[in-house]
């Protein structure tokens, strides 16, 4: 289609190597034929029923963050009308001609630095800072207002969940709420086009998130996989729920009690997939220190962490992440 990025053309040399495939690369691919897993499902209405149900809900959130690093929430407060508007605008945005999208500073596609299947993502995305939502004068159907409405609901939810996780650690301050501002967070809209080699190329390569918390909405189309106890498992999609996952910064702050889990998206030959994620990030000057003792990780600023991740990706092709900051 005219809207598709030229993934196959851009990476034809890589795709040829994939077709010839080394044994190591074929074994690396994390596609699993295991049955779908249902992530822990938490009803946030429990927070408003009684003191006992409130405490129970908080424990469920903390337990899921420790054991899985991922969970789902329903009755999250995001109006269905805003969600439907967002899905409609997102599709129209991605269906624009590729050349028009490619001229936008916040548009990303593929992995230009990829030299192996481990570094190749068959996808495209709009990466939008919350303080710079899409301008309304040159966009599709005045999408700016919809993006702002949608992301602020997700931002408020992320801050609320973060506060609960802090309290479950015995922290009475509001460290995350005070350091994670809308101006430091961003939303990423993803599209995974049809892929001719879904068992050789990933929609998004395995990674952890370099933030405190991520709030994701995905459609009924599956594709998300997480690394659970050393095994890749498929996540059963639930369009009515929002998926929450712990990021690297929360793992560092909690001393490893809350887990930032590696995850990926598999490609699909038959149906395209869309998702939208909000990343709860602090300001660059924020220093992350372990709340628990003894500390597992050295203190670091968010700026230093981002720079280290970018340097590792540039020099090795892979994110090293928190291992760089272990004592």
Structure description:
By secondary structure, the protein is α+β, with helices and mostly antiparallel strands. It has helices spanning 7-10, 12-20, 23-28, 51-67, 80-94, 98-102, 143-168, 175-179, 248-253, 302-316, and strands at 41-43, 70-74, 107-109, 124-129, 186-192, 202-207, 213-218, 224-228, 231-234, 242-246, 263-266, 273-280, 287-288, 300-301. The longest helix has 26 residues, at 143-168.
Question: How would you summarize what this structure contains?
Answer:
This protein has ten helices and 14 strands. The chain is α+β, with helices and mostly antiparallel strands.
Mean pLDDT: 89
Low-confidence stretches: 23-27, 134-138
In N-to-C order, the SSE pattern is: HHHEHEHHEEHHEEEEEEHEEEEH
Q: Determine the fraction of residues in helical runs and give it as a percent range.
A: 25-40%
Shape: globular
First-last Cα distance: 50 Å
Task: Give the spatial strand order of the biggest sheet.
Answer: 1-2-10-7-12-5-4-3
**Number of continuous helical runs:** 10
Report the biggest beta sheet as strand number plus sense, adding barrel if it closes. Answer: 8 strands, mixed
**If you compute it from the alpha carbons, what radius of gyration comes out, rounded to the nearest whole angstrom?**
20 Å
């Amino acid at each position: 289609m005219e809207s598709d990025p030229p993934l196959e053309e851009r990476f034809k040399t890589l795709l040829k190597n994939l077709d010839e495939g080394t044994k190591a690369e074929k074994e690396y691919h994390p596609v699993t034929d295991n049955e779908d897993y249902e992530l822990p499902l938490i009803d946030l209405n429990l927070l408003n029923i009684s003191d006992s149900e409130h405490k129970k809900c908080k424990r469920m959130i903390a337990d899921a963050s420790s054991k899985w690093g991922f969970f789902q929430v329903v009755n999250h407060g995001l109006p269905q009308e805003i969600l439907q508007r967002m899905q409609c605008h997102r599709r129209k945005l991605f269906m624009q001609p590729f050349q028009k999208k490619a001229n936008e500073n916040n548009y990303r596609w593929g992995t230009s630095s990829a030299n192996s299947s481990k570094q190749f993502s068959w996808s495209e995305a709009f990466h939008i800072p919350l303080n710079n939502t899409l301008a309304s004068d040159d966009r599709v159907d005045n999408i700016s207002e919809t993006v702002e409405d949608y992301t602020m609901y997700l931002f408020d939810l992320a801050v609320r969940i973060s506060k609960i996780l802090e309290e479950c650690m015995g922290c009475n301050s509001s460290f995350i709420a005070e350091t994670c501002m809308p101006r430091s967070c961003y939303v990423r809209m993803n599209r995974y086009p049809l892929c001719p080699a879904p068992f050789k190329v990933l929609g998004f390569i395995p990674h952890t998130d370099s933030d405190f918390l991520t709030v994701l909405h995905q459609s009924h189309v599956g594709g998300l996989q997480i690394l659970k106890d050393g095994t890749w498992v498929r996540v059963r999609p639930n369009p009515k729920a929002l998926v929450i996952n712990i990021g690297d910064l929360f793992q560092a702050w909690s001393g490893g009690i809350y887990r930032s889990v590696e995850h990926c998206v598999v490609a699909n030959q038959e149906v395209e997939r869309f998702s939208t994620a909000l990343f709860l990030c602090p300001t660059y000057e924020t220093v992350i220190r372990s709340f628990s003792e003894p500390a597992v990780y050295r203190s670091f600023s968010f700026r230093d962490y981002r720079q280290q991740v970018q340097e590792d990706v540039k020099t090795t092709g892979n994110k090293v992440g928190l291992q760089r900051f272990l004592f």
